[in-house]
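User: Hi! I'm working on a homework problem where we have to compare a predicted structure to a textbook description. Could you give me the structure for the chain below?
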Amino acid sequence: MKLRIGRILAGTMALAAATVMATAGNASAEQAPGGIAWDHTYKGNGVVVYVEERGDIISVCDTSANGHSAVVYVDEQIPASFGGDFYHLTVTSGSGSCKTARASDGAAHNWGEGSNINVYYDGNGGAWDGNKWFLNDH
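Assistant: Happy to help. Predicted structure tokens:
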């Protein structure tokens, strides 16, 4: 009887260990860059965009080995004006790579408080996966 209980216990422990390992593997499959608590995350086919309003940080990551670069276009709509600043980031180094810009990069990268920030992103060769906007309020 003790031998049978031991086998059952060993089998249960092995199953639990396999489940934990599988879960851990899935959790690390897509890591956000820089250890930042990102305010916004936008996902599309082959692309993920992360935004942190403090420091005006935006990161675009290529998530698919589909032969296309991941790109994000950032358009700042400044209140009470006709237009704003515009820039883009393109990841050309393949799947799993990211490119980041921040306010300290100067000019268009330094978003004004109260501005609407429009984010257009693509990771599928020009088939625009998404368009999002947020109010830069901190």
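For your comparison, note the following. The first helix runs from residue 2 to 27. Confidence is low (pLDDT under 50) at residues 1-29. Good luck with the assignment!
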